[in-house]
């Protein structure tokens, strides 16, 4: 599903975010990406989303080589990927349902289908009763769940999460990770960047450890997956 | 891929395209309605910008339609020499009718002339002191009506033709006035063209600036849309429709303002023309021109929005990478 082949990323000015990173993530698996702040976790996710280009090496996602993929195809790549952000990235002037509906509206689905799918996604994250509520009236955990609902509403084959539990208490964080596990069990590939080592250990999934832009360790899953 | 599958995929894509457009179409209108005051102010500015060239255009159209130049200023007045008889005057009139085919030829005898002068001048009985009528036979000739250039040409031909008669003392005509009016109308038409171009540009600039501010206030929203897979077209559409709505509403308001202005001016203008013995009803833009104003306004609004959004998207690179 995701293949990094000796990928390096240098930002203008010479700062190195990733150096010679190689790994392969199978379809349907759930993998954690961890490391200290500035280790290159977010840059790696941005490369998968085509928000950045690799300076060297090849990034292959869903059999498409993003290193030579033209810019105009970036929206298509993003449409087949669900992304969850630490700061939620919700539209304040739209209701919860409208926020979740965005990827489907972009895809041009029928209004009746959009409504059905939005309700199903909100049901999955336990926010069905908050459909018509404005995001700013929700708690941090609820906003994060709206972000997750938006990421899974179009049922993408790949789900990326950048520090999804950053602002949440341990109980809510555990709930979220359980939700990600369920999504992964339904066939989606899930890649989560997190520095919450306790929770990562509890899930016993594969862990990629980044340190100063290099892949320092690749710990295999111990849950049998 | 089989042709059947290809067709189905094409139909699905078309339907998705239509849905995206219908979403942008109605959501942009909804946003404008939500911000009534701001929308009204922008639309007013656009309407005034469109009203000015339209007003001048309608004025010129009405002036041309007033027929003043052809009936009054285009007429040639012929004064015969003293002692010319009725038969001689009639012969000139017949000759003129056969060879020059004028619109009308009116013969005024010295007696009719004096009576008319008596009424118009107010001298009344004072004119009875005169031992004999000093007025000559007069003939008023109006050339065939038509476009200004043709009337000018006909008047010139008439005067050359009249020079061949010995019993004509003076030929008087307002040819210069006719010429001047024709040139003034041409100048007016050129001014309308320049005003349409200038104020059209003003509409584009006003809409571009409004949309620029609109886009700037939606920067965060645009970035989020791009992150969840929106391409340039999806981001651009609501703004383009907003520009289109602005242009359409501006055009509509300009037409309404023009109608109200004409309604207001119709009575005093009618009274003024009555003193000249002319009955005239003002002509408006008409359905065809109104349609063009609305289409033109919509297009200019769309163009202004496109210029603004396109510049912004290029800076943001929404279709490709965001930010750096």
Model description:
The complex is a heterodimer of chains A (225) and B (324). Chain A has helices at residues 41-48, 74-79, 96-107, 111-124, 140-152, 170-185, 197-203; strands at 2-10, 16-25, 30-35, 56-61, 64-65, 81-84, 158-162, 189-193, 206-211, 214-219. Chain A folds into two domains: 1-80 and 157-220, P-loop containing nucleotide triphosphate hydrolases (Rossmann fold, 3-Layer(aba) Sandwich); 88-155, no CATH class. Chain A is an alpha/beta fold. The mean pLDDT of chain A is 89. In chain A, the strands form two sheets. A six-stranded mixed sheet of chain A has the order 6-7-8-3-9-10, sandwiched between helices. In chain A, a hairpin with a 2-residue loop joins strand 9 and strand 10 (214-219). Chain B is an alpha+beta fold and 324 residues long. Chain B folds into two domains: 20-67 and 182-316, no CATH class; 75-173, Alpha-Beta Plaits, CATH 3.30.70. Chain B has helices at 3-34, 36-65, 68-73, 86-100, 110-121, 148-162, 175-216, 219-227, 232-275, 286-316; strands at residues 76-80, 104-108, 138-142, 168-173. In chain B, strands 2-3-1-4 form a four-stranded antiparallel sheet. In chain B, helix 7 runs antiparallel to helix 9 (232-275), helix 7 runs parallel beside helix 10 and helix 9 (232-275) runs antiparallel to helix 10 (286-316). The longest helix of chain B is centred in the C-terminal third of the chain and has 44 residues, at 232-275. In chain B, 27% of the residues are buried. Chains A and B meet through helix 2 and helix 3 of A and helix 1 and helix 8 of B.
Question: What is the strand and helix layout of this fold?
Answer:
The complex is a heterodimer of chains A (225) and B (324).
Chain A lengths: L1 E9 L5 E10 L4 E6 L5 H8 L7 E6 L2 E2 L8 H6 L1 E4 L11 H12 L3 H14 L15 H13 L5 E5 L7 H16 L3 E5 L3 H7 L2 E6 L2 E6 L6
Parallel strand pairs in A: 3-8, 3-9, 6-7, 7-8
Antiparallel strand pairs in A: 1-2, 1-4, 4-5, 9-10
Helix pairs in contact in A: 3-4, 3-5, 4-5
Chain B lengths: L2 H32 L1 H30 L2 H6 L2 E5 L5 H15 L3 E5 L1 H12 L16 E5 L5 H15 L5 E6 L1 H42 L2 H9 L4 H44 L10 H31 L8
Antiparallel strand pairs in B: 1-3, 1-4, 2-3
Helix pairs in contact in B: 1-9, 2-7, 2-9, 6-7, 7-9, 7-10, 9-10
């Amino acid at each position: 599903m995701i293949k990094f082949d000796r990928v390096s990323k240098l930002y203008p000015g010479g700062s190195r975010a990733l150096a010679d990173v190689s790994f392969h993530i199978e379809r349907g698996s759930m993998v954690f990406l961890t490391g200290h702040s500035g280790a290159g976790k977010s840059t790696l996710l941005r490369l998968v989303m085509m928000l950045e280009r690799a300076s060297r090496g090849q990034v292959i996602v869903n059999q498409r080589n993003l290193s030579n993929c033209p810019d105009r195809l970036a929206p298509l790549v993003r449409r087949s990927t669900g992304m969850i952000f630490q700061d939620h990235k919700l539209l304040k002037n739209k209701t919860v349902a409208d926020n979740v509906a965005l990827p489907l509206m972009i895809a041009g689905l029928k209004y009746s289908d959009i409504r059905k799918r939005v309700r199903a996604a909100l049901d999955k994250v336990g926010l069905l009763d908050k459909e018509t509520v404005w995001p700013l009236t929700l708690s941090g955990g609820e906003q994060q769940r709206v972000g997750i609902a938006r990421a899974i509403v179009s049922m993408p084959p790949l789900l990326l999460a950048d520090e999804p539990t950053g602002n949440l208490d341990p109980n809510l964080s555990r709930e979220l990770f359980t939700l990600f596990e369920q999504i992964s069990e339904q066939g989606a590939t899930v890649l989560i960047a997190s520095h919450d080592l306790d929770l990562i250990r509890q899930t016993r999934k594969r862990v990629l450890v980044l340190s100063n832009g290099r892949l320092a360790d690749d710990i295999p899953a111990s849950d049998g997956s | 891929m089989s042709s059947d599958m290809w067709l189905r995929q094409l139909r699905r894509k078309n339907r998705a395209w239509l849905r995206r457009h219908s979403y942008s179409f109605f959501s942009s209108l909804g946003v404008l309605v939500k911000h009534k005051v701001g929308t009204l102010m922008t639309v007013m500015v656009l309407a005034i910008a469109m009203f000015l060239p339209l007003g001048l255009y309608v004025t010129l159209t009405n002036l041309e339609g007033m027929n003043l130049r052809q009936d009054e200023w285009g007429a040639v007045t012929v004064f015969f020499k003293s002692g010319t008889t009725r038969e001689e005057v009639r012969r000139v009139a017949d000759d003129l009718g056969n060879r020059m085919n004028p619109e009308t030829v009116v013969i005024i005898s010295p007696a009719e002339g004096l009576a008319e002068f008596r009424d118009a001048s107010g001298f009344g009985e004072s004119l009875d002191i005169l031992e004999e009528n000093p007025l000559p036979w007069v003939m008023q000739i109006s050339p065939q009506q038509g476009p200004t250039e043709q009337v000018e040409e006909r008047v010139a031909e008439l005067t050359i033709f009249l020079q061949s008669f010995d019993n004509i003392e003076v030929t008087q005509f307002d040819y210069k006035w006719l010429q001047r009016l024709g040139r003034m109308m041409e100048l007016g038409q050129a001014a309308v063209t320049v005003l349409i171009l200038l104020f059209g540009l003003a509409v584009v600039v006003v809409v571009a600036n409004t949309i620029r501010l609109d886009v700037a206030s939606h920067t965060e929203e645009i970035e989020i849309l791009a992150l969840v897979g929106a391409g340039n077209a999806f981001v651009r559409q609501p703004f383009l429709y907003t520009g289109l709505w602005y242009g359409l509403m501006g055009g509509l308001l300009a037409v309404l303002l023009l109608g109200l202005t004409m309604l207001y001016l119709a009575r005093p203008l009618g009274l003024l023309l009555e003193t000249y013995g002319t009955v005239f009803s003002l002509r408006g833009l008409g359905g065809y021109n109104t349609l063009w104003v609305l289409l033109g306004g919509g297009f200019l609004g769309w163009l202004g929005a496109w210029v603004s959004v396109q510049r912004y998207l290029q800076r943001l690179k929404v279709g490709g990478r965001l930010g750096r």
